[in-house]
User: What shape does this take?
Amino acid sequence: MPDIILNGPEGRLEGRYFHNPTPNAPIALMLHPHPQHGGTMNNKIVYTMFNSFKAQGFSVLRFNFRGVGRSQGTFDEGEGELSDAASALDWLQSVNANASQCWVSGFSFGAWISMQLLMRRPEIDGFISIAPPANMFDFSFLAPCPSSGLIVQGERDDVVPESATAKLVDKLNAQKGIAIDYRVEPTAGHYFENEMEIIDSHIQDYVSQRLVAPVEE
Assistant: This one.
């Protein structure tokens, strides 16, 4: 799995990339949790997401937001991080020009950024959000939400209450042509400490279904 350096808006961005040599292989971009709370591309959930998409035949990229690891720049309250994500997606598309599908996946803060990216990039076909921080950030920009996806939430999450995520899911599912697959893990907290295999199972199950039978938008 090669280390790569991307050109970002504030300088270099450090990443890890897996290339699937299959012609027209789909692509997926992984986004990590909050940079100011220890979030990096090597977070266990981000790493699990990366390998889940890899197992489904995707070319996959995860990277460090500005100011994290070897990525240049400083934290920018989400606005700059969204620009970083857009640059990373540009790079991923440039080396996979004929990709059959394009997905984004994020955990916590990364889920918030990924869903903003979803709104800006109509070519994104699906998304995975793990514990989206619906109680901390405004998700009203998802009006309308342009793509269906999977949201996974821990019932024992003491950072993002399950009720806040459920409210977001209800709003999205009320939109015409959008189907959110919402899966609540009864024993999981925010960081899914002992549930990496469960996360992997949910992602592979959902993505495999969508690859066989894409949702009609």
In short: Residues 196-212 form the longest helix (17 residues). The chain has a mean pLDDT of 96.
